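Deliverable D2.4 — example input (C-alpha coordinates):
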Protein backbone atom coordinates (compact mmCIF):
# COMPACT_ATOMS: atom_id res chain seq x y z
CA UNK A 1 0.00 0.00 0.00
CA UNK A 2 1.41 3.40 -0.97
CA UNK A 3 1.86 5.99 1.76
CA UNK A 4 -0.86 8.20 0.24
CA UNK A 5 -3.35 5.31 0.33
CA UNK A 6 -2.40 4.53 3.92
CA UNK A 7 -2.83 8.19 4.83
CA UNK A 8 -6.28 8.25 3.22
CA UNK A 9 -7.29 5.09 5.09
CA UNK A 10 -6.09 6.54 8.40
CA UNK A 11 -7.81 9.87 7.84
CA UNK A 12 -11.08 8.24 6.75
CA UNK A 13 -11.03 5.92 9.78
CA UNK A 14 -10.72 8.90 12.10
CA UNK A 15 -13.34 10.96 10.26
CA UNK A 16 -15.83 8.08 10.44
CA UNK A 17 -15.83 8.28 14.23
CA UNK A 18 -15.90 12.09 14.29
CA UNK A 19 -12.32 12.89 15.23
CA UNK A 20 -11.80 16.60 15.65
CA UNK A 21 -9.24 18.99 14.23
CA UNK A 22 -7.55 16.49 11.92
CA UNK A 23 -4.31 17.86 10.51
CA UNK A 24 -1.96 16.14 8.11
CA UNK A 25 1.63 17.21 7.53
CA UNK A 26 3.77 16.10 4.61
CA UNK A 27 7.19 15.61 6.24
CA UNK A 28 8.95 13.71 3.45
CA UNK A 29 11.43 16.54 2.92
CA UNK A 30 12.03 16.94 6.65
CA UNK A 31 12.67 13.43 7.96
CA UNK A 32 13.44 9.94 6.75
CA UNK A 33 11.39 8.41 9.57
CA UNK A 34 7.98 8.78 7.94
CA UNK A 35 6.18 10.43 5.03
CA UNK A 36 3.15 11.87 6.81
CA UNK A 37 2.34 13.00 10.31
CA UNK A 38 -1.37 12.94 11.21
CA UNK A 39 -2.82 14.61 14.31
CA UNK A 40 -6.38 14.28 15.54
CA UNK A 41 -8.30 14.98 18.72
CA UNK A 42 -10.93 12.97 20.54
CA UNK A 43 -13.33 14.46 23.04
CA UNK A 44 -12.56 12.08 25.94
CA UNK A 45 -10.45 9.07 26.83
CA UNK A 46 -13.25 6.83 25.57
CA UNK A 47 -13.40 8.68 22.26
CA UNK A 48 -9.60 8.62 21.82
CA UNK A 49 -9.59 4.88 22.52
CA UNK A 50 -12.44 4.29 20.04
CA UNK A 51 -10.69 6.33 17.36
CA UNK A 52 -7.44 4.44 17.78
CA UNK A 53 -9.18 1.04 17.94
CA UNK A 54 -11.07 1.75 14.70
CA UNK A 55 -7.92 2.93 12.93
CA UNK A 56 -5.95 -0.13 14.06
CA UNK A 57 -8.75 -2.46 12.99
CA UNK A 58 -9.00 -0.83 9.55
CA UNK A 59 -5.27 -0.88 8.79
CA UNK A 60 -4.99 -4.51 9.90
CA UNK A 61 -7.88 -5.43 7.58
CA UNK A 62 -6.03 -3.65 4.78
CA UNK A 63 -2.97 -5.81 5.44
CA UNK A 64 -0.92 -3.01 7.03
CA UNK A 65 -0.63 -3.82 10.75
CA UNK A 66 0.90 -1.05 12.87
CA UNK A 67 4.61 -1.26 13.70
CA UNK A 68 3.85 0.05 17.17
CA UNK A 69 1.08 1.39 19.37
CA UNK A 70 1.63 3.45 22.52
CA UNK A 71 -0.72 4.99 25.06
CA UNK A 72 -3.90 3.04 24.42
CA UNK A 73 -4.43 2.13 28.06
CA UNK A 74 -4.65 5.70 29.35
CA UNK A 75 -6.03 7.02 26.03
CA UNK A 76 -4.86 10.54 26.69
CA UNK A 77 -2.39 10.37 23.80
CA UNK A 78 -2.27 7.35 21.49
CA UNK A 79 0.57 7.04 18.99
CA UNK A 80 0.09 4.61 16.11
CA UNK A 81 3.15 3.97 13.95
CA UNK A 82 2.11 2.87 10.47
CA UNK A 83 5.66 3.33 9.13
CA UNK A 84 4.84 5.76 6.29
CA UNK A 85 2.21 7.51 8.42
CA UNK A 86 2.55 8.30 12.11
CA UNK A 87 -0.75 9.03 13.80
CA UNK A 88 -1.25 10.87 17.09
CA UNK A 89 -4.75 10.81 18.58
CA UNK A 90 -4.95 13.08 21.60
CA UNK A 91 -7.32 14.64 24.04
CA UNK A 92 -7.56 18.41 23.44
CA UNK A 93 -5.82 19.47 26.64
CA UNK A 94 -2.89 17.13 25.92
CA UNK A 95 -2.64 18.35 22.37
CA UNK A 96 -2.66 21.97 23.50
CA UNK A 97 0.04 21.28 26.11
CA UNK A 98 2.47 19.49 23.78
CA UNK A 99 1.74 21.54 20.62
CA UNK A 100 3.11 18.91 18.24
CA UNK A 101 2.03 21.01 15.26
CA UNK A 102 4.65 23.57 16.26
CA UNK A 103 7.42 20.97 15.97
CA UNK A 104 6.66 20.54 12.27
CA UNK A 105 6.14 24.21 11.47
CA UNK A 106 9.36 25.33 9.88
CA UNK A 107 10.59 27.29 6.93
CA UNK A 108 11.21 30.89 6.02
CA UNK A 109 7.60 31.93 6.48
CA UNK A 110 7.07 29.77 9.56
CA UNK A 111 4.86 27.29 7.76
CA UNK A 112 5.15 24.00 5.95
CA UNK A 113 3.29 21.85 3.48
CA UNK A 114 0.10 20.84 5.26
CA UNK A 115 -1.86 18.32 3.25
CA UNK A 116 -5.30 19.02 4.72
CA UNK A 117 -7.18 20.51 7.66
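Example output (designed residues):
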Amino acid sequence: MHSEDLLELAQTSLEDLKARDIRVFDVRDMTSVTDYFLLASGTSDRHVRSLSDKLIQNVKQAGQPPLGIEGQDAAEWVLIDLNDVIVHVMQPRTREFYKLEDLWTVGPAGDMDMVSN
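The chain is about 35% helix and 25% strand.
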